[in-house]
Design goal:
This protein is α+β, with helices and mostly antiparallel strands and 276 residues long. It is 40% helix and 36% strand.
Length: 276
């Protein structure tokens, strides 16, 4: 007599085996392994993006959460890195996620380009770094920052400035004003404005909204470009403003023009406009 239970078990085993083979074929055809690999690459790119975004903040608390103890020590006390951190911050950053190098599943490196500004939000250099990450448990942590090279920011180009001293006084007012704008502190920025300029707005609220700039992407830093003396008591300053989106790589730029006028006691901003 045939053993029906044994025959049924054999049929079930055959069906399961065939189903497994079909699933494997579908995974190969539709690139499941490639998608899994791409998922790992995306996580690495996200780790770089999160770490660099944390470095754009005015403090280093969030960035330190995303680094190993050895890098944190270098960040706080290392001669080259700590000095740069104390004197400035990352304004904007970018990197090629396709160029990330991962020799194994526990580490990878990425080359990053970042724009740095000083404590007055004035851009002073573009830095090129190689970041190295390691995997601890399930988290990617930055383990090393290797400097590749640094490109100084653009120098201010003076044109027809009769008095260097007066030019410096005018630029000092521009720096104070722009720091208030970029820190989204309109009250501070308004201290450098002439009454004529403020009277162009229907209300103080309208003026404050103008000075704060757009919400996203937002004003992050600026770069002085030219200084031109129009007459003995008037200077024109042109600059580039960097705009970035929160926690995102890349940046945009906006040209701006200011006119600084000498009053009875000091210089003040008499015009401020974004150039289309």
């Amino acid at each position: 007599m045939p053993d029906f239970n044994q025959e049924a078990g054999a049929v079930t085993k055959f069906v399961i085996q065939r189903t497994v083979v079909q699933l494997i074929c579908l995974m190969v055809i539709f690139g499941f392994p490639a998608r899994a690999q791409n998922g790992g690459a995306n996580l690495r790119a996200l780790a770089v993006e999160r770490f660099m975004a944390a470095r754009t903040l005015p403090h280093n608390v969030e960035a330190r959460k995303l680094m190993t103890a050895s890098l944190e020590e270098d960040y706080l006390r290392g001669k080259r890195l700590s000095i740069r951190v104390r004197s400035g911050r990352v304004v904007a950053f970018d990197f090629d996620s396709g160029a990330i190098k991962a020799p194994n599943e526990k580490e990878f490196s990425a080359e990053v380009e970042s724009v740095w500004a000083d404590l007055n939000e004035l851009v002073f250099a573009t830095q090129y770094e190689r970041l190295k990450f390691i995997k601890l448990k399930e988290d990617w942590l930055a383990n090393e920052i290797e400097f590749i090279r640094s490109v100084p920011g653009r120098r201010l180009l003076p044109f027809n400035v009769v008095s260097e001293k007066r030019g410096k006084q005018a630029v000092a007012v521009v720096k104070k004003f722009m720091k208030g704008v970029l820190n989204r502190d309109p009250q501070s920025a308004m201290q450098s404005l002439t009454q004529d300029f403020q009277s162009k707005f229907r209300s103080q609220e309208e003026l404050e909204t103008f000075l704060k700039g757009p919400a996203d992407p937002y004003f992050s830093a600026y770069e002085l470009q030219t200084l031109t003396q129009k007459d003995p008591k008037e200077m024109e300053v042109k600059l580039k403003i960097y705009l970035v989106s929160k926690n995102k790589r890349g940046s945009e730029s906006q040209e701006a023009r200011l006119v600084v006028r000498e009053g009875k006691t000091d210089w003040n901003i008499d015009e401020f406009e974004l150039v289309k």
